[in-house]
């Protein structure tokens, strides 16, 4: 964080794209690992662990959407539908065949990836707004399909109770155990996302984002890589859906409406498109925003407004206003999002205190 | 087939087409902005909602006559849209499509929070003095609000076509839509025409708010009408005003058929043997399904401008 980079020169291509750019990065990663794996579960109370769990789940989804939107430059306004697909796949497998989480989790992801390829297929021919709307269509169609097919949704209420996952014979039913479970998945998701971005596939994605016709002339199979981006991204979304299902103990399409798709897009954009760290920032910010608003309004509100009914109404409206206002603010004022702010802070301290 | 079923079919189709014209009216606001400023407005439904809410709330809570309410709403919407263009969308010219889409989605959330907070979230009726008794032509029963809505939409399209074809400003706006740079070189003040396009979209939104508000009542759900705009504009083609009308009518008719024929069919045993679906509600996604099918054959819609890309 506050280390100096002077004296380290990148002399080869491999060192430029290394996962740990500097030796100190290893220590930083080790420090974060201790903080999140050891300190957090011991020191943080159960209520705040629920919030951390929600943040963790959101990070997985945002990382996936970032691969599609930030790296490949395609748009999906139907990502919540993929989460729904993952959630119901896992729930059906877990309840009907008693399968453990290490089968249902990838299975949910793979099912979502398969649907994602189908949904992404129009991206071969169309782009921009046309593509955005066709993924929006996918949201409605998949949602309708799941709710109206009792074989998938489990009947009238469209919700399926899911047993808690078990690891080495331990049932994960407290927030602390769930936290560690989700954290492991989040770490895997981050590592995979980082490695995709610096591999051949990731470079192909970026080439397609910047100019897809030029990328095709360079010999990149645009169709294949676009569909691959959709597949990877919806795999992440499917895993997010499965995690949310295990977290809440029930699979329900009410958890994944259009608004959730928009929330995830907001995470990617507020965080900063195309960067893994940005997706993490964005997911944290968007998840914490309503909680923070609720907290502030609950503590300040009673002094300003007497009627509790009006207060809760204002709270829900306030969330929308701030959420929408912040998205517009970030897009106009800081297009590269929170990640850019962080980089600005870092580059200020890079030469501090000799900042001339 | 007996005559009754034929009349019923005609009635469903005509009512659907009239509703489709009302969709087309809202879609027109979207197309106007996209054509002339390249901005994609996901908040068109919210524009319709806030103008409807404003007129209805002024009438119900403050006793302002509907006519004055409409004038206030018109002035407000034009001012609001001009400000919006200036503050939010002009700095974003040339940015990726996803950024502009996201900004207007943010705007949509903003408006959905702000207006119910100011005017209250209750559902209000918006009475324009249109009678409720069906209009009977032959054996066909037509809903009056749909007839009025369709007629207003058609009249508006007529005025618009004359404006675009004959008037000096209309021609200039078409030039701006074609190419910003060339029209700038020809001495057209492009930014002024951006403002004009946004204010016209504001007028269309107020009109849509009045018609839809009196058809289905005014509250936050009025914005859902905005979601129907997308299949309409994509079917017709984003740059085409004719496309908006054709797309609107297609979407309206498909919805009406879905509600009248497909939903009941889904409860029949012969259908359920093949497709184990439950319940109806097909009208919500049929337009989108049709849209995707059309996109596979015509990637720029029925009347859209085919873009030839160069590196």
The helix-strand sequence of chain B is HHHHEEHHHHHHHH
**Poorly predicted runs of 5 or more residues of chain A:** none
Largest sheet of chain B: 2 strands, antiparallel
Q: What class do helices, strands and sheet pairing of chain B give? A: mainly alpha
**Rg of chain B, nearest Å:** 20 Å
Any overview of this molecule?
The complex is a heterodimer of chains A (356) and B (311). By secondary structure, chain A is mostly helical. Chain A has a two-stranded antiparallel sheet. A two-stranded antiparallel sheet of chain A has the order 2-3. In chain A, helix 3 (46-71) packs parallel to helix 8, helix 3 packs antiparallel against helix 11 and helix 13 (276-304) crosses helix 15. Chain A has a domain at 45-257. Chain A is 74% helix and 3% strand. Chain B is built from 12 helices and 2 strands. In chain B, helix 9 packs across helix 10. Chain B is mainly alpha-helical and 311 residues long. Chain B has one domain: ABC transporter involved in vitamin B12 uptake, BtuC, CATH 1.10.3470. In chain B, a hairpin with a 2-residue loop joins strand 1 and strand 2 (140-142). Chain B has a two-stranded antiparallel ribbon. At the A-B interface, helix 6, helix 10, helix 12 and helix 14 of A face helix 4, helix 9 and helix 12 of B.
């Amino acid at each position: 964080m506050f280390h100096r980079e002077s004296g380290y020169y990148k002399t080869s291509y491999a060192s430029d794209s290394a996962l740990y750019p500097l030796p100190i990065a290893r220590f930083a990663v080790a420090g974060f690992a201790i903080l999140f794996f050891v300190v957090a579960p011991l020191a943080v109370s159960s209520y705040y662990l629920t919030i951390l769990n929600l943040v963790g789940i959101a990070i997985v989804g945002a990382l996936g959407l970032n691969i599609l939107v930030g790296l490949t430059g395609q748009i999906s306004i139907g990502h919540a539908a993929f989460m729904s697909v993952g959630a119901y796949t896992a729930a059906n497998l877990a309840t009907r065949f008693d399968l453990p989480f290490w089968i249902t989790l990838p299975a949910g992801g793979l099912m979502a990836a398969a649907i994602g390829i189908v949904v992404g297929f129009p991206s071969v021919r169309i782009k921009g707004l046309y593509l955005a709307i066709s993924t929006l269509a996918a949201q409605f169609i998949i949602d309708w399909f799941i709710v109206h097919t009792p074989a998938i949704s489990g009947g009238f209420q469209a919700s399926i109770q899911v047993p808690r996952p078990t690891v080495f014979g331990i049932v994960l039913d407290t927030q602390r155990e769930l936290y560690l479970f989700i954290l492991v998945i989040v770490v895997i998701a981050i590592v995979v996302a980082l490695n995709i971005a610096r591999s051949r596939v990731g470079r192909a994605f970026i080439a397609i984002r910047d100019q897809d016709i030029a990328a095709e002339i360079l010999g990149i199979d645009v169709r294949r890589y676009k569909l691959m981006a959709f597949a990877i991204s919806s795999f992440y979304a499917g895993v997010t859906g499965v995690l949310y299902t295990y977290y809440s103990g029930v699979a329900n399409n009410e958890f994944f409406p259009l608004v959730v798709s928009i929330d995830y897009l907001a995470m990617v954009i507020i965080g900063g498109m195309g960067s893994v760290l940005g997706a993490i920032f964005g997911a944290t910010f968007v998840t914490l925003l309503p909680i923070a608003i609720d907290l502030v309004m609950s503590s300040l509100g009673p002094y300003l407004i007497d009627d509790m009914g009006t207060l809760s109404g204002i709270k829900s409206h306030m969330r929308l206003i701030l959420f929408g206002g912040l998205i517009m603010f970030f897009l106009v004022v800081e297009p590269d999002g929170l990640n850019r702010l962080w980089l600005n802070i870092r580059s200020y301290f890079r030469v501090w205190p000799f900042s001339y | 087939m007996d005559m009754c079923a034929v009349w019923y079919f005609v009635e469903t189709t005509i009512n659907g087409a009239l509703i489709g014209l009302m969709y087309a009216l809202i879609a027109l606001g979207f197309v106007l902005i996209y054509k002339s400023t390249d901005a994609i407005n996901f908040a068109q439904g919210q524009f319709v909602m806030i103008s409807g809410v404003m007129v209805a709330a002024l009438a119900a809570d403050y006793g302002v006559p509907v006519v004055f309410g409409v004038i206030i709403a018109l002035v407000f919407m034009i001012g609001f849209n001009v400000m919006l263009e200036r503050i939010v969308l002009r700095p974003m010219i040339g940015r990726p499509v996803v950024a502009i889409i996201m900004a207007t989605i943010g705007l949509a959330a903003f408006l959905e929070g702000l207006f119910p907070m100011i005017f209250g979230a209750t559902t209000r009726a918006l009475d324009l003095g249109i009678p409720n008794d069906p209009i009977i032509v032959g054996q066909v029963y037509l809903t009056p609000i749909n007839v009025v809505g369709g007629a207003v939409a058609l009249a508006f399209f007529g005025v618009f076509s004359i404006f675009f074809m004959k008037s000096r400003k209309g021609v200039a706006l078409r030039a701006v839509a074609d190419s910003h740079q060339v029209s700038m070189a020809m001495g057209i003040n492009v930014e002024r025409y951006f403002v004009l396009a946004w204010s016209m979209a504001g007028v269309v939104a107020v009109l849509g708010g009045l018609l839809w508000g009196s058809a289905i009542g005014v509250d936050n759900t009025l914005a859902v009408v905005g979601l129907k705009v997308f299949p309409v504009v994509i079917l017709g083609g984003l740059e085409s005003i004719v496309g908006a009308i054709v797309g609107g009518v297609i979407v309206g008719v498909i919805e009406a058929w879905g509600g009248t024929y497909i939903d009941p069919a889904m409860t029949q045993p012969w259908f359920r043997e093949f497709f184990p679906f439950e319940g109806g509600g097909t009208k919500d996604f049929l337009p989108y399904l049709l849209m995707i099918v059309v996109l596979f054959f015509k990637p720029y819609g029925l009347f859209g401008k085919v873009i030839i890309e160069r590196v």
